[in-house]
Amino acid sequence: MSQSLKPNPWQTFNNSTLLRLLLLFACAWALVLLIGYFYNVIAIFTTAAIVAALGGFLSIGGEKVSEPEASMLKKLEQTLTFKV
């Protein structure tokens, strides 16, 4: 009768593996802190890009934007405006 011995999962970790996991965790933590620090800038630029893209699609070729589209765009701008 042959028994296959499965190694304990905790015994498969060595210093190199633990160091890699620690560095991965540290990089992820630094990325979260960096995004948190620049959150306002990211939000403002994202909003500006969305409004610019929508504005570009509504007035292609120098055409005038119709009144319903203009009012919809104005409501969208007011909705997306952040108060700091």
User: What is the 3D shape?
Assistant: elongated
Average the pLDDT over all residues and give the rounded result.
81
Question: What is the ordering of alpha helices and beta strands?
Answer: HHH
Quaternary class:
single chain
Count of domain modules: 1
- Using only C-alpha atoms, the radius of gyration works out to 26 Å
Q: How many DSSP E strands?
A: 0
Summarize the structure.
With 84 residues, this protein is mainly alpha-helical. 68% of the residues lie in helices and 0% in strands.
Describe the protein in words.
This protein has 84 residues and is mostly helical. The protein has one domain (13-80). Helix content is 68%, strand content 0%. The protein has three helices and no strands. It has helices at residues 15-37, 39-58, 67-80. The mean pLDDT is 81.
Key features of this structure:
84 residues, mainly alpha, elongated
Could you give the topology of this structure?
Elements (H helix, E strand, L loop, with lengths): L14 H23 L1 H20 L8 H14 L4
Helix pairs in contact: 2-3
